[in-house]
Automatic annotation (TrEMBL):
GO terms for molecular function: ferrochelatase activity; metal ion binding. One of its GO terms (cellular component) is cytoplasm. Belongs to the ferrochelatase family. The gene is hemH. It is found in: Cytoplasm. This is Ferrochelatase. Its EC number is 4.98.1.1. Pathway: Porphyrin-containing compound metabolism; protoheme biosynthesis; protoheme from protoporphyrin-IX: step 1/1. CDD domains: Ferrochelatase_C (cd00419), Ferrochelatase_N (cd03411). It comes from Thermomonas carbonis. It catalyses: Fe-coproporphyrin III + 2 H(+) = coproporphyrin III + Fe(2+); heme b + 2 H(+) = protoporphyrin IX + Fe(2+). NCBIfam families: hemH. GO terms for biological process: heme biosynthetic process.
Length: 322
């Protein structure tokens, strides 16, 4: 008896998105899409839209475009380049799988990726948002887009991988390799992207997952949790975000006489504006201005083998997919 050929399995890696050029126009287009997402900014439209269109986008876009220009790579924005490279190395580890990547905001879009998979006859898709820690501002927003564009596909999504042993070991190995090459700095600081405290008070598990990740990384490094400083960066707007803030902490450490600090950003799957510019340039400068000597930035896992192995193992397992 002839059996229908099995439809191929597909993996969609989803990252945040990034401008397609380091120009004010491209940054404005990107920020407009990003900051219209109700998962990211919860203000009512009549209040937020005028503020966004007449104040934030015109003032912020040119300034942020200069920052993007300072870290831009020959192949594009670091986030775009590293995410595409990561998809390539994960693909090599998953023969028989169709592996694509998409961005929540901008290109390549989630809608286009899912359309392409449908056109190829794919029925079942695993969606892996490249956010180790779950947040309503990021992971749930990806889920919204998948629900909107995923009709007709059997989709399961990984909610988070914040305590995954393979991922934590990969992060710990990258820190250990940095120590082996450069010696251990005065302190180790893990900086995660912040979110408003209000969201955590309303039940967003993000802060607890950042704490759990930090513990898992400490255990994988074989050091006490108390040897690691956990801070939050990239505050946007005036309200209180998760604390302690990265920059304030670095300035305090500089004032206290810490000379060398090692900083990693395990909440970011790949390097991007927030790591390469905010941490490695702006915050390094703030640390030095406060009396510190050197901030040594430890790159994200990017398209490294350990990252690809950890993600491919997650994709082939059953835990956490729903
Ligand atoms: C890693 C997880 C992230 C969370 C959580 C997150 C929440 C969050 N972000 C903003 C506002 C901005 N973030 C911006 C850049 C940016 N954010 C993340 C990740 C998370 N954001 C990444 C990977 C990046 C870098 C993108 C790149 O192109 O390299 C920006 C754009 C830059 C700027 O204008 O400063 C904004 C704005 C909010 C409001 C928020 C939660 C409420
Ligand atoms: Fe608007
Ligand atoms: Fe952000």
């Amino acid at each position: 008896m002839n059996q229908a050929p099995e439809s191929p399995s597909a993996l969609l890696l989803v990252n945040l998105g990034t401008p397609d050029a380091p120009t004010a126009t491209a940054v404005r287009r990107y920020l407009a899409e990003f900051l219209h997402d109700h998962r990211v900014v919860q203000l009512t439209r009549w209040l937020w839209c005028p503020l966004l269109h007449f104040v934030i986008l015109p003032l912020r876009s040119p300034k942020v475009a200069l920052k993007y220009a300072s870290v831009w790579l020959p192949g594009g924005s670091p986030l775009a380049v590293h995410t595409a490279a990561l998809a390539d190395v994960v693909r090599r580890r998953l023969p028989g799988w169709r592996v694509l990547h998409a961005m929540r905001y901008g290109e390549p879009s989630i809608a286009a990726a899912l359309d392409a998979l449908r056109a190829e006859g794919v029925r079942s898709v695993r969606v892996l948002p490249l956010y180790p820690q779950y947040s309503t501002t990021t992971t749930a927003s990806v889920a919204d887009a998948i629900a909107k564009h995923g009709k007709g596909l059997q989709i399961s999504m990984l909610q988070d991988y914040h305590r995954d042993a393979g991922w934590a070991a990969a992060v710990a190995d990258s820190i250990r390799a940095h120590w082996d090459a450069n010696g251990r700095g005065g302190r180790l600081l893990l900086s995660f992207h912040g979110i408003p405290q209000r969201l955590v008070d309303g039940g967003d598990p993000y802060a607890a997952q950042c704490e759990a990740s930090t513990l898992a990384i400490a255990e994988a490094l074989g050091i006490p949790r108390s040897d690691i400083l956990l801070t939050f960066q990239s505050r946007f707007g005036k309200e209180r975000w998760l604390q302690p803030y990265t920059q304030q902490t670095l300035e305090a450490l500089g004032r206290e006489g810490v000379r060398t600090i090692d900083v990693a950003c395990p909440g970011f799957a790949v390097d991007c504006l927030e790591t390469l510019e905010e941490i490695a340039v702006e915050n390094a400068h703030a640390f030095r201005s406060a009396g510190g000597e050197t901030l040594r930035y430890i790159p994200c896992l990017n398209a490294g083998d350990a990252h690809a192995d950890a993600l491919a193992t997650l994709v082939q397992g059953d835990a956490g997919w729903s």
